Structure formats: C-alpha cells, structure tokens
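The instructor's notes for this session suggest beginning with a concrete chain rather than abstract definitions. Hand out the sequence below and ask the class to guess, before any prediction is shown, which regions might be ordered.
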Amino acid sequence: MYKKNVNAEGATLSADNIFKILTILENGSMSEPVRMNLSEKKKVKDLFMVVIKSIDINQNRKVVSSLIQFASNLCYGTGKFRRLLIATESPLDFIKTLSSILESVQTPMTPMDIA
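After discussion, reveal the predicted structure:
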C-alpha cells in the first residue's frame, strides 16, 4: 500500500490484502445486523478516517473505492456511523476530505497504471 508518509514506521499489508479485507467488510455490511453492529463501533470510524487521510489515493484507488463503499453502507439505516463521522471533525472538514478524494481521481488511469 502506498502511503503519503513513506517514513511511517511499522509493517503494512499489501494493497491486495487490504482490498480483500475491505471487500469482506463491504459485503458483510450489506446485512442489516452486521451493518448495525459495525456502525456502532467507534474504531470502525477511526479506521475509515485514518486510512483515507494517510494513503496515496492515486496509488490505491481500488482500496479507496472499497473503503468508501463500505463506509457508505454503514451510513445507511439507523446506525450511528454517520454521527460518529462528524462528531470528531466538522461536517465541512469531512466534505473537504471527500472532495480531495474526488479531485485526486479526476485523472483517468491508463492500463499501465492498473498493472
């Protein structure tokens, strides 16, 4: 996984392994009981914010896409994930984070970038 801060300490998983984990979480979050359980966990919100802010989006588009879909699933329904997202930072800051993601993916990827 390409990180913004390449001097960060500690081992990281490969982008493929992270993508597999997020795919499992994303698929699991389609079920109401699982979604309700996960949306109540503050650590899941922290995971989302930390990952989104720390990785190079252009180098990890599949991971970011899956992470956003997972978070979107958790926002659905009556769980408190939405409230947790804006509890620690203002809604405007959260929207700026999402805007930075959209800006970074404006440039289409070539087949060489995907390989």
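Then share the key points. The mean pLDDT is 78. Helices lie at 15-28, 32-39, 42-54, 61-75, 81-87, 91-104, 111-114.
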